[in-house]
Amino acid sequence: MASAVVVSDDERSTIHASFFALACACVGMVGVGVGTLLSPGVGGALGWTLHSLGWLLLSVAIIAHIEHLSNRLGRVAVVCGILAAVAQALADVPFALDPDRVLQMSWLNYYTVMWGVAGFLAAASLALVAVRKEKLMEQHIALGETGKFAVEDYQTTVHASFLTLMSGALACLLTGISQLMLINDGGSSALLAWVLLALSWVLTAVAIISHIEHLSMSIGRAAVWLGAAAAVLNALGAIPMFFDVTGDNSFGGELSWIMWGITCLVGALALAIVAMRRRAQDSRAAAA
């Protein structure tokens, strides 16, 4: 039976994402959040531009961390994640160029489809990670390993549980499906679409909370709970649309968008905490 070396707590608590990657993600989420709050549900050119740039910065954040993520999650899964963020950015670009396009159903359908595509890409990314985790587990079992992480394996181990990965994948899949159901305002399927969207964010919170122990050790419990709270807030943000599925009532639609903006800002705060934690780790390493 192969021997295993127990990984130190210092290694387990190390944040592998660079400060640059975390800062890009944080600023990106701020851009999306502020862009949304500037004019909920409609948005002027500035709001849509901030949206687009925010999603692009999120894709830059993933690219900046691509080597470590690829070693751990697999290159294809990481590329799918990048493409999901790019799809979100591309959804916003036409409206940044001409905000009046929000009045045209064809452009609204384009926006909805791109969000659906992003959801499917994110779902594929997480599903691929789950498959990778299963294969790694099978390899460890075949080698008769004890289950403890060997130092040389720690960088390639998928730490998230199957519950976390599949909850996240299902959440993204439901997001994609719900968006496609909302094409042409959704018709009779609109209510179900919004229910699925709310459920997707509840599942996102479940995915985060089910991985709380490992995440808390590396990025801190406050950041984890803020991430979960952001997901719950966005689930609550879908509720007004249960009673205004077509968005004809401006208050319901605006409230939903405001909740989305707040969700992004809470997520940005979580990322800022992680970035500061990473900076502190860098400072300690430099002083050692």
Layout: helices, strands, pairs:
Blueprint lengths: L8 H5 L5 H20 L6 H20 L1 H8 L1 H23 L7 H38 L8 H4 L7 H20 L8 H20 L2 H8 L1 H18 L11 H38 L1
Care to describe what's here?
It is a single chain. This protein is mainly α. It has one domain. Helices cover 77% and strands 0% of the residues. Helix 2 packs antiparallel against helix 3. The relative contact order is 0.13. The N terminus is likely disordered. Keywords: Membrane, Transmembrane, Transmembrane helix.
Total separate domains: 1
Alpha plus pi helix count? 12
User: What proportion of the residues is helical, as a percent range?
Assistant: over 70%
Which structural category fits the helices and strands?
Answer: mainly alpha
- Counting copies of identical and different chains, the oligomeric state is single chain
Largest sheet: none
Could you tell me the mean pLDDT?
Answer: 83
Q: Give the terminus-to-terminus CA distance.
A: 37 Å
Radius of gyration: 20 Å
Q: Could you spell the SSE succession in H and E letters? A: HHHHHHHHHHHH
Shape: globular
State which percent range the strand residues make up. Answer: under 5%
Low-confidence stretches: 1-5, 148-152
Tally of strands? 0
Keywords: Membrane, Transmembrane, Transmembrane helix
Transmembrane segments: 19-39, 45-64, 76-97, 109-131, 162-183, 189-210, 222-243, 255-275
